[in-house]
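To whoever picks this up:

The nightly regression suite flagged GNAT family N-acetyltransferase as changed. Nothing in the input moved, so I suspect the structure step. Input below, exactly as stored in the fixture:
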Amino acid sequence: MDAIAIAIAHARSDADIAATFDVMSQLRPQLRRGDYVATMRALEASDGLQLLALRDGGVVRAVATYRVMNMLYCGRLLYVDDLVTDEHARSRGYGSRLVARLKDEARALGCSQIQLISHVKREGAHRFYFREGFGIECLHFRAALPE
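Regenerated output under the current build:
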């Protein structure tokens, strides 16, 4: 892996956002290509969602979305909504580079911590998060609301 060919940047243009779809849809298969850019733009406008793309040789290999929140129990934090490396490019250090960038973003934005949730069945992801310094702090509960 040539460090010079690797770049991590915010996806700002519609073309840059669209270029992340193939990797993001591996984590979020319910997404539809035709709606993707508009969906990301809506989340950016309503919630301040940010999209980072890691490219190697110009090809998107990993993506992450995040937002900054203020919570009574912990203060300002960077919350990672999505973090995924292309399934054909795993174990090459892309995820670690992206997490390092997210931690840098958190520090630059005055956050005291970085948080994320991961589904209980994603054991491989859990091993990765433990290696990256994350720990399990609580249980996440949810209830679907009837229509």
